[in-house]
Sequence to fold (318 residues):
Amino acid sequence: MHLWNLAFDEIKHTLTAPTDPPWPSIYTPPAVNSVAFSPDGKTIATGSGDNTVHLWDVKTGESKHTLTGHTAPVRSVAFNLDGSTLASGSEDGTVLLWDVTPYTVEPPAPEYPAWDVNRDGQVNIVDVVSVSHYLGEPASASPRADVNGDGNIDILDLLLVSKHIDESTDAAAPARIAKLEGLDRTTVEGWLALARIEDDGSLMFQQGIAYLERLLEVLTPKETALLPNFPNPFNPETWIPYQLATPADVTLTIHDIQGRVVRDLDLGHQRAGMYQSKSRAAYWDGRNAVGEPVASGVYFYTLTAGEFSATRKLLIRK
Fold:
């Protein structure tokens, strides 16, 4: 069977049935006695002289499936209106009805609630962040972020997503919050301030604000800590993460194995929170105070934040 591109008067695909010969040699290759397109135009059924019905993919020209059951050549094939059933008429005196749903009917697209903004089947902090990126913009900026469909992306949309966080199938979502770029205490505090200004006493506001308060707790470390730098060993740069349980003036001092100061990094006054991603952690380019690359070897870094002080070791390898 040839499938033609009529616009260019040329053959698009040539569809040839399998050639294992269970039929008399006079039918080799088996005759194509009938052809029918599925209603959506994506599948072709052919009734064949080898007593079978073949289903073909119109786009690729490849065989999808072979239906066997007749005991004589198949003379006619026809789809029903939705393409889920195929009728085949044969010289064996029978008409068979076939369920061809797996080969011809695409499953319906899954339906997602509006608050599953990224449509991944889970309602979690990723959806909250997806809305927050467009706060203050019209719905045209990101139609999915306009969760309540009022034409604007605002705190109401953010709270509507937050209200449904507890329905998430990913119960660990809040615990991963600190690993998301761009999300910190300052951001969540801003959301909370706006939500409290707009609060009309409704259940949505109460639940949304309660969730944002829980997120703020997740983003507030229980204790101040200096964390291992990454990468380590490194060349020529590294990031030094830390976390603050309370606001503090933060400095980082790099010194060599003899205790001599190599570099002082004044990080300024920092709010309580996680400083673990590349965009928030302390950064050292492997240079001393006058901009010269330091030699390979072991160095130490000390974080001072208020009354807290801690030291760790790092290694430059060139």
User: Anything to note?
Assistant: Residues 169-181 have pLDDT under 50 and may be disordered. The chain is about 15% helix and 30% strand. The CA atoms of residues 155 and 198 lie 8 Å apart. The helical segments are 101-104, 125-132, 155-163, 185-198, 203-218.
